[in-house]
Amino acid sequence: MSKLYVGSEVGQLRRVLLNRPERALTHLTPSNCQDLLFDDVLAVEAAGKEHDVFAEALRDQDVDVLLLHDLLADTLAIPEAKQWLLQNQISDYRYGPTFASELREHLADMDNDHLATVLTGGLAYSELSITSASILPKMHKALDFVIDPLPNHLFTRDTSCWIYGGVSLNPMMKKARKRETNHLRAIYRWHPTFAKQNFENYLGNENEHYDNTNIEGGDVLVIGRGSVLIGMSERTTPQGVENLAHRLFETGQATQVIALRLPKTRSCMHLDTVMTQLNIDTFSIYPEVINSSLETWILTPSEKGRVHAVQADSYASAIKDALGLQELKIVTTGGNSYEAEREQWNDANNVLTVKPGVVIGYERNVYTNEKYEQAGIKVISIPGNELGRGRGGARCMSCPIERDAV
């Protein structure tokens, strides 16, 4: 059996988790898309076809593609997992004890494939065939959601991230994404692909309120050789970074964490929207954000199991020291200042490296893709006119589960 291990950002990618966009996108409307963290509504069929091209491009590179819907349906076929997931997603505190109990019974009667679709894609009150004694459904309109859709499940990178020999089940920042984590908790605990494998759980695997500890996988780059690069962004807090670092050090999976202080803006919601690793010594950056003035911290283990933080001279010096490099090769976002800003917004920097020097990115980012090619990086381009509307590229849409070290 293959090992659950992600040893780098650029080693050969062997297994990855994707989520094909379907029902959740059909529930996006101009009036609710902002609350669901989308800037626009997507053409659902076109988005699905673009995603299929992405998945096929990965398979062409000898990557085993796992699909979230299939894993979730398989997990729901396990009675203990189904009971746990319904109890947590349809809790008494979310719906009130009467309606929660009725709703759980209704959902439990669905076949597992359809239930997986409903849990990720949402359910309106008009689709419910139960008569409830609870006050809650009586106070809602027919098209209100009983179960909110989770369109951001498209971005599997964020909900969980594999770091060396373990996984962080991320306590998400935004309300619209918090329920996603329970799906991955159930899959990693019960699905046969994961259930009997030996791996560490760093964060998020307990039924507790994580308070100010928020972290999302788009901010986490496993740069290799025992180091992890993490952005403190709109979605990842210093408390999240320190708690994850503490567990990485406690389990012996990492020796240092390099933390970057990012602007708290939508255009730069995660580190990987402004910086990705293309080869062992080569990084793509958006220089308006990633530059010599970027506040950089190095976290290492200290006595009594604590974390010690010191400020570094620069992000570049911290990465060079971590990877034992004489210099970094930096590729900046392409085009003039207008084109660079537009391509960064369209995820030119958010490419997925499938092996050293080979990346997958959106074909629309022509100026940046040209610069990658000039730097010796092969770009496998995919369409993203619809997928890109969700503000996420190939890296955002992928959760590596198995990847070689460097």
TrEMBL record:
Pathway: Amino-acid degradation; L-arginine degradation via ADI pathway; carbamoyl phosphate from L-arginine: step 1/2. GO terms for molecular function: arginine deiminase activity. GO terms for biological process: L-arginine deiminase pathway. Its main location: cytoplasm. Its EC number is 3.5.3.6. It catalyses: L-arginine + H2O = L-citrulline + NH4(+). InterPro entries: Arg_deiminase. The active site is at C396 (amidino-cysteine intermediate). Keywords: Arginine metabolism, Cytoplasm, Hydrolase. SUPFAM superfamilies: Pentein. It is found in: Cytoplasm. GO terms for cellular component: cytoplasm. Belongs to the arginine deiminase family. This is Arginine deiminase. It comes from Vibrio inusitatus NBRC 102082.
